[in-house]
Design brief:
- By secondary structure, the chain is an alpha/beta fold.
- The protein folds into 2 domains: 3-256 and 463-481, Aldehyde Dehydrogenase, Chain A, domain 1; 262-450, 3-Layer(aba) Sandwich (Aldehyde Dehydrogenase, Chain A, domain 2), CATH 3.40.309.10.
- It is built from 16 helices and 23 strands.
- The protein has helices spanning 47-61, 65-68, 71-87, 89-100, 104-124, 160-173, 188-200, 214-223, 236-248, 271-283, 300-316, 334-345, 384-387, 403-411, 426-435, 471-475, and strands spanning 13-15, 18-20, 27-32, 37-43, 132-133, 139-147, 150-154, 177-181, 207-209, 229-233, 252-256, 262-265, 295-299, 318-319, 348-349, 352-357, 359-360, 374-376, 394-400, 418-422, 440-443, 463-464, 477-485.
- Helix 10 links the parallel strand 12 (262-265) and strand 13.
- Helix 1 (47-61) packs parallel to helix 8 (214-223), helix 4 runs antiparallel to helix 7 (188-200) and helix 10 (271-283) crosses helix 11 (300-316).
- The termini are far apart.
- The structure holds 1,4-dihydronicotinamide adenine dinucleotide and magnesium ion (MG).
- 1,4-dihydronicotinamide adenine dinucleotide (NAI) binds at residues 154-156, 158, 181, 183-184, 214-215, 218-219, 222, 233-235, 238, 241, 256-258, 290, 336, 339, 389, 391.
Amino acid sequence: MNVAANIKPARGCLIANTWRPAAIGKTIPVVSPSDGKAFAEIAAGEAADVDAAVKAARAAFDGGSWSKLTATERGRLLMKLGELISANAEALAQIEARDTGKPMKQARADMVAAARYFEYYGGAADKVHGETIPFMAGYNVQTVRDPYGVTGHIIPWNYPAQMFGRTLAPALAMGNATVMKPAEEACLTPLAIADLALEAGFPEGAINVVTGLGHVAGAALSEHRGVDFLSFTGSPEVGVLIQIAAAKNHIGCTLELGGKSPQVVFEDADLEAALPVLAGAIVQNGGQTCSAGSRALIQKSVYDKVVSALAERFSQLTAASYDEDADLGALISAKQKMRVESFIGEANGPGAEIITRGKVSASAPEGGFYVAPALIGPVAETHRLAKDEVFGPVLSCIPFTDEADAIRIANDTEYGLVAGIWSRDAGRLMRVGKAMRCGQVFLNGYGAGGGIELPFGGVRKSGHGREKGFAALHEFSQLKTLVHNHG
Ligand code: NAI
Ligand code: MG
């Protein structure tokens, strides 16, 4: 593997700017999804490591050199880290692709986004202003945005480098000291980027990273009384545990828990523009994207036409090793492969039938976690494939009759993260867009995970709180009102 000299292999947990093994001395093997073989090790951090990390963050926030930096100085550090990610992007992309199984082109795009998070929030750090509020005579009232203190961040395995930037950059921009628990399935780029943060000059304790199992290190972080705010991205089931832990410590949290996002195609849509996006929004990252467009809602009058074009595309899709840069790579783990295949197995008769499958390349290494993409339809509205998140390359096609029917079906899920709507009628786009119960709507387009500048988040089972854009700076800070009686 061609790794740049300043990208070093994982060397434990980062606590107070020092790499150390887990207190218990144990490690977890790192498996490459492309061949199922272990190729590295990470520290199996536990409660003691989390405790040390939270204490380091606390010291950084309470009087440490991190707390003494101005917003502009914090911003410069963030931008410097963004530059270092860009300078090391190719090496980081290689690590990411091997660790997650994703094609190199996706890993390269992820590094551009990861760097951009630090650039964007670095630039924003000193542009968050308070307000003055007219009040009684003799008073001056102003609001300021305070950081929470120590923020805890638990991220998943689907976009490790991007998630590192998405959650840490805004928290750091606002002056919080951070503790991150990346996913045990893929955390090599978060570790490598944390190492670059040392090179950038982040003061001791601003960024701490503890690797380990979710129910051990993740649980210890979410329950730690020294954490002032939590940010979690992952499954709805663990999201519940995070909320319970946050409630017990009387702190807030943001949760981003995935979705069953619709892409709605009306008969007057520009089908030529819509078709590649419809397929791309579910195939990207092997469908392992919280905002994947996993339901294609297609107006009955064009259903057959759209589905046959999609079938042609799906039949050509190929899963292969990350270095072959095919349409998709291996899924993250044997567990995820089983989960996705069990969903596909449910498409076995009326209510959900397989229209076509893509293929797994003959060159794909034995032992890798490959799944051939599946186009399924027509899927009955009540079927699991119309309701539950698969988190794999599986597109459920669902016909609808008219605008009202489209809105009803689109919103008939417990999730609500993203929606895409395709039509040439501007009024319809706006009407349907406004009726969507979710956090982000694309009109004549779809950006699965795209747009650092665009506020992003869910409703109900997709979670709550908003990331990205300036919204994230507000999530990672709280208003304080200063009331001055000047007489
Ligand atoms: P998960 O929710 O178990 O893992 C996400 C993160 O939470 C990881 O860092 C993990 O170590 C941590 N975690 C696990 N148990 C924990 C606990 N008890 N306390 C604190 N932290 C804990 O998700 P998993 O099992 O990897 O994937 C299962 C399903 O979740 C996927 O099939 C998909 O549907 C959904 N998912 C959604 C994601 C999204 O982007 N919204 C990302 C990953 C998974
Ligand atoms: Mg891995």
